[in-house]
Amino acid sequence: MGKVTGFKEFERKDESYKPVKDRVKHYNEFTVPLKDKDIIEQGSRCMDCGIPFCHSGCPLGNLIPDFNHMVHQGEWQKASWILHSTNNFPEFTGRLCPAPCEKACVLGIIEDPVSIENIEKSIVERAFKEGWIKPQPPKVRTEKTIAIVGSGPAGLAAAQQLNRAGHTVTVFERDDAIGGLLRYGIPNFKMEKGIIDRRLAILKAEGIVFKTNVNVGVNYDVEELKKFDAVVLCGGATERRSLPTPGIDADGVVQAMDFLTQQTKVVFGQKIKDQVLATGKNVIVIGGGDTGSDCIGTSNRQGAKSVVNFEIMPKPPGHRSPTTPWPYWPLQLKTSTSHKEGVERNWLINTKEFVTNAKGKLTALKTVNVEWEMIPGERPKLIEVPGTEKTWKCDLALLALGFTGPESTLAEKLGIKRDARSNYKAEYGKYQTNIPNIFTAGDMRRGQSLIVWAISEGREAARQVDIYLMGKSDLATKNEEGDLVGL
Ligand SMILES: Cc1cc2nc3c(=O)[nH]c(=O)nc-3n(C[C@H](O)[C@H](O)[C@H](O)COP(=O)(O)OP(=O)(O)OC[C@H]3O[C@@H](n4cnc5c(N)ncnc54)[C@H](O)[C@@H]3O)c2cc1C
Ligand code: SF4
């Protein structure tokens, strides 16, 4: 434990943000990091609990009290070793994770929890700055070859682990750049893409081969995968959800992912023909999740005239709801930095029609307010509130409705079974599909989720592949019982 009285002496401190008026003029990150002295104090707030509930909150099983202690001692390099022993990419989670560990932190019962995510980010940034993060190529190669399809956080974590076990790993990615949703979903202002490239340089130096613009099952025959000893499918859950609403095909109704991807490509100098722009437009973002929030931030940066957000669910409470007590993930209103940049948020509202002019261009949205009727034993029922119909002026409607599941191409061409939610079927903890040498991990196996889960599944799947190929594995991970193994 860093300092016995640390949690009594010091209040929680978080990174601050550059002013809204400045940050909406660009697409770069806008956080102002804490000073080392402040981070050391934050580390000392950790109580080194007998039962560290933060562990149970973290899908990776990060050794949180241990790295908090090292930071408090000023032992940054040791903190980095501890952090990297369970997490391949703390620079991604340190920026983007909703931090379930903090929601489970024991200090959170009576005070603000330990600022674990900030500590994590500070450790890894310090480690990169000091040159402590170096390629670790395997000393011995096994002659086993592995193909990984998809280069999101799941694919990258699996690749690094399997390469470190000595296998020869090739990662196939259909996009023109590596990173999955980290690259082309999440905007540059939430995570600058140089952060991915910095890690990628390490992975390449370790000997992993990356092949971009290779769409397995489309411009690369799935038969070619048979040349590998094992395959890990990490293709994400990218089948977009739409609405069965009249006018959905109007010019001006756009999928959030197209809008976000185009903008990131433009930031990196690509020319996009007929780029969808919010500039000077009345924008309505349909969907109140992370993707919706990213669309709001991007619309404001593009200079939208107005930005409105619709969510069909009720407004969550401002504080932890009694239905989700500590240490559970709380049902609670989330206000992101993008929300703070300007948006009118509306809950319990449903879109009835996308209205167009004679040329088929979107001009307005017709909506109605709704309520959810809860009948025990039945699915909640959506009820329209009479007399609440409203027309909203709108030139650009962005559909941020989430994803229905993984795309079907690979499952069909390889003969992989799918579960009731259309995800690629493989038991949690085993990751093996119905074809023995084909494994799957990340959003493709569990459905749309989080980066931290993708990294966790990539690591665990790697261990299972290693056991499948070699009969045993020294790769460290959290096993199916939730215990850390191999450390
Ligand atoms: C807009 C947006 C914002 C988000 N923000 C956050 C956030 O702030 N924090 C957070 O924790 N999570 C966030 N998420 C969720 C998070 O990004 C995902 O859970 C995570 O990226 C899943 O990782 P993955 O590796 O399983 O799949 P993905 O990241 O989806 O990567 C899959 C990759 O596989 C490739 N691929 C698919 N099929 C093929 C094929 N046949 N051949 C070759 N390549 C293929 C795809 O092109 C893609 O690059 C966000 C998601 C979105 C959409
Ligand atoms: S639960 Fe909070 S206070 Fe306890 S060990 Fe984990 S980070 Fe420290």
UniProtKB/TrEMBL annotation:
GO terms for biological process: glutamate biosynthetic process. It comes from the Bacteria. Residues 36-68 form the 4Fe-4S ferredoxin-type domain. GO terms for molecular function: iron-sulfur cluster binding; oxidoreductase activity, acting on the CH-NH2 group of donors, NAD or NADP as acceptor. PROSITE patterns: 4FE4S_FER_2. Keywords: Amino-acid biosynthesis, Glutamate biosynthesis, Oxidoreductase. Its EC number is 1.4.1.-. The keyword Amino-acid biosynthesis applies. The keyword Aminoacyl-tRNA synthetase does not apply. Pathway: Amino-acid biosynthesis. SUPFAM superfamilies: alpha-helical ferredoxin, Nucleotide-binding domain. PANTHER family: GLUTAMATE SYNTHASE [NADPH] SMALL CHAIN. This is Glutamate synthase small subunit. It comes from Winogradskyella endarachnes. The gene is gltD.
